[in-house]
Each structure stands twice: as structure tokens, then as C-alpha cells.
Request: fold
Amino acid sequence: MRKDSSRLSVSKLAEYAEDPAAFIKADGKPYNKQAAAAGIKAHKRVGAGPSKMKFLIGTAILLAILIHFGVIKI
Reply:
């Protein structure tokens, strides 16, 4: 038997505050598909680590600039 949780997520509270009737009609599931997709995309972006490829390209460009201007001698 599942125990009911007394926790309430902020996103559920915000959905309810936006449109209580639509929230109840959707039975607590996302009723605004665009907002749900934007939220999922934002959470993935925040949770993603830094791009190794961008770091390597940036480092290569920085080294090329420093070599070109004589800061680093080869």
C-alpha cells in the first residue's frame, strides 16, 4: 500500500495557482504542454555539465592567440 506524501512540489503549486479548474480537470498532470516542455528543457540544461568540446576549442583558440602575439614562445 502506498503512503500518501505530505510534500507538495513548487511546480504543482504554481500550476494550481495559475488555473485551479484546469489543474483539477487534468488530475494533477501537466495541462499546459508548452510550459511543461519548457520546464523539462530548462531542468536538463541546468543539470547538464560543461561541454568538453567547447572547452577544448576555446583552449585551442586561446593558445593560438597567445602564440600569435608572442606571449608564448615555441
Summary: The mean pLDDT is 85.
